[in-house]
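Instructor's aside before we start: the two examples that follow are unrelated to each other. I chose them only because their records fit on one page, so don't look for a connection. First example below.
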Amino acid sequence: MLTFTLRRLLTAIPTLLLISLVIFLLVDLAPGSPLSDVPLTVPPEVRQKMLEAMGADQPVLVRYLLWLKQFFWIEPLYGIDALFGTDFAQGAQRIISWQSKMPVMDTIGERLPQTLTVVGTAYLIGVLIALPIGIYSAYRQYSWFDQAGTFFAMAGFSVPTFFTGNILILIFAVNLGWFPTIYDTNLEVVDWASFKQMLAQMALPVMVLALFNAAEISRYTRSSVLENLGQDYVRTARAKGMGEGKVVLKHVLRNSLIPVVTVIALGLPTVFGGAIVTEQIFKINGIGAMLIGAINVSDLPTVQTVTFIFAVLIVMFNLIADILYGILDPRIRYD
């Protein structure tokens, strides 16, 4: 397993470099200009100086190599300095947002708690709901519970989150007045009253995202459990007099979780990447909203950095999923 992990880590390096180049070029060559919001009355020489100040006048290759150095070397040094009080970075140039003129990583650090609080909670709730529903639906195939679970999954997966979010706002916020419609990112939990206020403003966006996540994962779980329930080893275990609960939980569930782990692991990067549509609906000042705002004003450093972080997380969680395969199924070896 250690050899496999090291080999995958070495393979990930050229993979991430290629992904970074593709992302940088696609974003850089996309329509739009960093000066699109600057009035046309500004003289050309002033516009040129503005481009030079942002570094946007440099050739693409030069800007790509500088961004790569900043992402993999300079920004980690600043992170170490912030943690341990050192001065390894020595004032080196960071990745600066063209819109806010602030370091992109600092802005991400400010937005990440909101995203993790809402999207992370929704993903955890979605997984906790999906696994029991998928397992029991497969075990009681074609029962009323299976039919209800199938309807729940199809509705949750088919209906887009922007529609679900607006319906929940209309019902629970406008008509019933139970929950607020806008997420207050400045709210600090200092007592029981503020904690209840935090739960209230999280309820609707978490409900929307948890429904979507649970719908997808429950269908994968049901399909995987159904496939394993018909295997010979299950019939053999039952023939030996093993209890039904032990057969399902010890034998069927462990083998069934292998494809489900892939779905869950590949979905985890979305927890860090944010829910773009849902964050826009509920005015959550998270990573998704940050990315949309950067795209609207052609803030290329922010778009490139956030997108590449998402790609790094996907590669990392792919590796984690492969390692979990070997833990869940001892028959899988990577020698």
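Example two begins here.
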Amino acid sequence: MSNALQLDLKKIEARAFHRLEWAEPALRRYHAVCQKHTSAAKSLRPLYEWMFVPPTLWPFNVQDALEGCLAVLEKGKQLTARLKLLIEMLPELPDESVCQAVAEHESHVQIGFYEHLLNARAKFSQAELTNNTDPELRRQWERIKAAFSVRDYCDHKGVIRRSMNVERNLRPSFSVNMRRRAEVFQAVFDAFCLRWNLYGMKHDEPLLLKLSVNITPYGTMIHIPAYWSFDPKRDIRWDQIARLHRARVPRRQGAAFAQSHEERLRAANKLRQLDAEARQLGLKGQQKHAFLCAGLNWHPETSPKRLSRLRSEFPPAK
């Protein structure tokens, strides 16, 4: 095993959702392809780097894309224009501090632990006790087990989950093919979970929905179960949620900051014009600096670093 591969596997061995187990084969293939097709493999570098970003932040299944591209290169072929476009559309990697914060959050989500973000454990416990002792829930579950072989729909932990909700309730598939047993079962099970506020069943144990906070690639989602009598001041630790959300906010925001941003943008555009004029006039050193400051109505003793920061913050469009 190469040192590079060893380091890669070590990076993700502590990640949630058994990340090492399902990422290792893809990483091994990547390093093997890098050795045989060095130049071609360079184009896969963005996908490879995104493999170490927590999957919670992935815009699509990065590993599937990497493996698909590897399959092309392993056959000695070139990546198509569409595959190259897919790679080019990936945004810049999240900062390492963001990845650490989200990876920690994933470890909590994996075990359904949200208590560090909430203050109302008693509401969940009360509803859970009510469900667990309700004979009607048991009767309905027994009827479902009599109508379907529920073991066919369990995962390796014995858990059956209801259909997932998404933003604005825009579900990938909302239709039910009544001729397919699996789809009918899922419809029955979803109705059962809605009636009892469940996210699923584990063997014969009802799994009550929790008030939860989850990071997505596009934002932070707070899910308040329908049964929950919500008290925004007491139920949620807003400071912890804000800390989690702010981990990936790139810069300050607000009306004052927006105004300042517009002023800096105007100054950057003006500076670009002044830089061009200074080149035409052949100005250099202190003469050029004085010319630029005068054009921007800045004090002549302004530090040159301020001009450099303005250029780097608003680079010319390519």
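The CA atoms of residues 131 and 283 lie 80 Å apart.
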